[in-house]
Amino acid sequence: MNKSYALNLGLTTAVLSIVLFLLMAILGGGMILSFAIGILALAFMIALPIIFVRKQRKANNGIISYKDAFLTSFVGLAIGGIVYLAFSFIYVNFIDTTYLDKMINQQIETTMSFMQGNVPEEQMVETLTEIETKTREGFTLPGMLKNLGIYLIVYAVFSLILAAIMKRNPVIVSTSEDIIDN
């Protein structure tokens, strides 16, 4: 595996993820914006590994092993995911300590508007409390490590599939001189 492709993929993924995160923080989120940025982030997470594995394959005369394709994709995505999670942890816990409260309040307001009149009051309070608890837990160190574990599993599965599609083995051509007669 050429480590520069994985490292460049990781850094590119990290920078784009951080930019999207900051866009959400600056613009104030909201359901439609969150959905749009989530779709954009997913598109980047699919497209970038494909681009970098293709570049690596092209640089190697159109040949890339399954292992190299997998490692480039997985290691690159893992680096990007780790950098992004570290940044978001630092941002939420030290830079903008009000961000998490604002995000939780938006989630609660949106969920309440969907639930009012359709769900009993007890169930609504229980659901909203659960949303707040899980969101807060997601930005603690154990929550971030749990998210990282989930990310790594998703990255591994995606990278396995991508490697199967992108691998190209060298073509072995036999000539009549290679055949030995007894």
UniProtKB/TrEMBL annotation:
Transmembrane segments annotated in the record for this chain: 7-26, 32-53, 74-94, 148-166
Print the keywords alphabetically: Membrane, Transmembrane, Transmembrane helix
| Keyword Transmembrane belongs to the record | yes
Instruction: Name the domain of life.
Output: Bacteria
Q: Does the keyword Chaperone apply?
A: no
Name of the protein in question:
DUF4199 domain-containing protein
Q: Which organism encodes this protein?
A: Cryomorpha ignava
